[in-house]
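Forum: Protein Structure Q&A
Topic: Joint prediction for protein chains with partners

I've read a bunch of threads here and the consensus seems to be that you should model interacting components together rather than docking separate models afterwards. I'd like to see that in practice. Below is the full input, 967 residues plus whatever partners are listed. Could one of the regulars post the assembled result?
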Amino acid sequence: MLPLWLIIALPLLGFVVTGLFGAKMPKPAAGAIASLMVGAAFVVALLHVLGGVPEKAISESVYTWIQIGNFKVDVSLLLDRLSAVMILIVTGIGFLIHVYSIGYMAHDHNDLEGTRYARFFSYLNLFIAFMALLVLADNYLLMFVGWEGVGLCSYFLIGFWFEREDAAEASKKAFIVNRIGDFGFLLGMLLIFLAVGSLNYQEVFAKVGELDSGTVGALGGATLITLLLALGAAGKSAQIPLYTWLPDAMAGPTPVSALIHAATMVTAGVYMCARSSVLFEAAPTTKLILCGIGAATALFAGLTALAHTDIKKVLAYSTVSQLGFMFMAVGAGAYIVAIFHVFTHAFFKACLFLGAGSVIHALGGEQDMRKMGGLAARMKTTNLTFMLSGLALAGAIPFAGFFSKDEIIGSVFAAGQAAGTNGIYAIFGSIGLLTALITAIYTGRQYSQVFLGESRWNATQHHGTEASDDKHAHHSVEPHESPAVMTIPLIILAVGAVFAGFLGFPNLPGVPESLHGFANFLAPVFASEHGEHAEHKANVVLLLIGAIIGWGGWIFGRGLGLKQAESAFWPESMSALSLDKVYNNTIVKLGYALAMAVRWIDENIVDGIVNGVGILVGQSAASLRLTQTSFVRNYALAMAVGGAMILAYFLTS
Amino acid sequence: MPTHYYLAISAALFTIGVMGVLLRRNAIVIFMCIELMLNAANLAFVATARHFALAGNIDPARAMSGQVFVFFVMTVAAAEVAVGLAIIVALFRNRSSIDVDDVNLLKY
Amino acid sequence: MTVFIEAAALLAQLLEESVLTADSLLFGFASLLVIASALMVVLTRHPVYSALFLVLTFIGLSVFFLQLGAPFLAAVQVIVYAGAIMVLFVFVIMLLGEDKPMASEQSRGAHLPLGIIFGLLTVLMLGYLMTNPSQLKAPQGQPPKVHTLVSANATDSEKAAAYAEFGSVRAIGNTLFTDYLFAFEATSIVLLVAMVGVVVLAKKRL
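Posted by a regular:
Agreed with the consensus. Here's the joint model:
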């Protein structure tokens, strides 16, 4: 059996090679090496999974990292079924996006020396390495290393075109907002260690009862810990109130948006919550709060998506909304369903983003949907894959999104019945249904605004990525389909979007077992804590409502897109309804005032003391040097006076 | 004569020497006053040597230390006078004056 | 000088029975001489007169040394101080041509009043310190290992006999060359260094 650390080491090697030598190799070589490394990591993971991931886990310890007193943390990797699913998603979809980027980044007009291409791939590989570490870790601290690492790579990649003001600002914003969440994560880890004495998953989950006893229990016990962990997840997975970085992060290249902000990094929060399912089961209050936050985020982001005309911003808010769905599932205790939605969402959202990138590439950097349209005939593959993935996102039966999304809504309602808090969960479920409708509407609308109707794009647009300048303005190129290196990943992802749903058929009577593969695969991981939740009986009424919403919303939205092709759904002013302004007026201004106050203290008091000492020395020296009169008799007098004083001392002592 | 009479004379001589150093401007006269101070010390040494010899219960050899010390003081005083006067001569060659107030270049 | 001593001795013989002994008369005369000459050293304006008065002071001190039972030192005082050092002084005064009285010996600023005040204070303090009999204590602690002319537990008459030679050349020589041998040798080096230094300092051109 190949060692597990290869999955992390191979992309890391790719990072080093492309980072150090990438500028000296021809462009496609750097991209090929990077993609190869990720592909190899995928193969290793696949071999492990095919070789049989047992119901228990495979654990390998690479080396002992920290050992201080009774605080021991190893670098050891855990491959159980949950991390197997995640690592296949990460490396598989990562590989497809690497291949896509080979074509996408090849025409970066900012890359005058040709060195940026390799840098992009080295950052991508580093990201895959850190994400793999996050997913494969077997203790919280190692997961946190990967957590921070992906945040760092997100900073690098969002700010890839660092000379652009908006990209630089967005990368900083992403990192800082993430850090706020990380603060919660750290505190949660601290409390776990305080209560249990270890950060290893197995040990913590075995001793979950101790979380509510002793000092930690007095502070808040499992509820507090899970709330803090959820804060971390909210930062990483863009929930209210820490989602503001995700729309701005669209300033980075589109493959980055696809990989990091659709398929992998943002799902790290959901993975962490699923991994800590034992802890969350011990804190029902947190689950309720989490479900509420997820619902609110989903609805709010869905509404905001209708107010934007930038193709990537719509997809960004859509991601936030879908993440809200995943958190609703966690809040309902349906961890398997949440992971299933991660799985399907990775396929169709990545495909949507890559498709958007293909459109942008063809139109020479145009991102405004009001200036698109009529591309269906010219970009057949992109059109088809975008439509299929859009249908999946909208939740149209029989595409993937329908199954996962409706499972979520069903489990929210079921959790309400089981927990006795029927009313609240029913409200969340209704919000979920409403959001599903809105999702279908804006997705259909987006599709028709971009691909159907009359062509509103300017004929003088030219090749390039978002960062192209006006050097080729006089080239008038008709938009055409992207090269194969970009369309093949689109096709593969679309296939996934269509068929992946069949792995998680709802639990209806008469459904063959083989269609429950996903749930069966993951059940042992969550088996010990909750028997019934994972396999609740599906509500047929809900499924019917979901099917109607999916197709109905799509068709309605499609019609809207044709009618309102020149504008967004809401007026422009609605897009300004965001937390950014609130944050700016309160926290940012407060922080700025604090910083100015500290600066005043530093300049006047601290520097005052330091300079004051110098001035003091100078002034005392200026007055003391007057004693050097150069007259010998003055000195003799001083000596005589001194001698007299010594005599006086002897007299009196 | 009681010892403290001699010591009083020594004190007076010393003070006169100090006054001379402070109040005179001629470098050589200042030097002479320094010699006066040294001699006052010599007188004190010899007086106390005799005092301790007279006290009786002390080794005469030990009591002689006072006078031997005067011997050394005289020797060193001679050396010092020679060097000091050489310095004054050198100073005179440079400044053409032995007034100590004219040696005032090391001002602040 | 000897005339004075003889006259003093004659006077003492005449006034044997009175309090005024030869000792005290000699002391009074010598002290007057010393103090007066010392004051004149400081006060006179002619540098040469200053030097001559200093010589007189030394001679008075020599009388003191004789009285105090240090005949050798008295002789050395006259020979070395009055005979060599003061000659050197006069020599240098004449060499530099500064034998004329100084035009004005103006004191700088507050020197004169300050000097007088401190002078009075010093003489008072010194006087008190030195004349207070309680201040004169016997030396404490173990005596150093020395050659002794007489052992510690000798009889009084032996002691008197030992002290008969107090202050003599033999006694000084004995102490000097046994206890203070190192200092003696070091002093010779000091003299050598002084000689070389003087030659170097006083050269017109190095």
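DSSP finds four helices and no strands in chain B.
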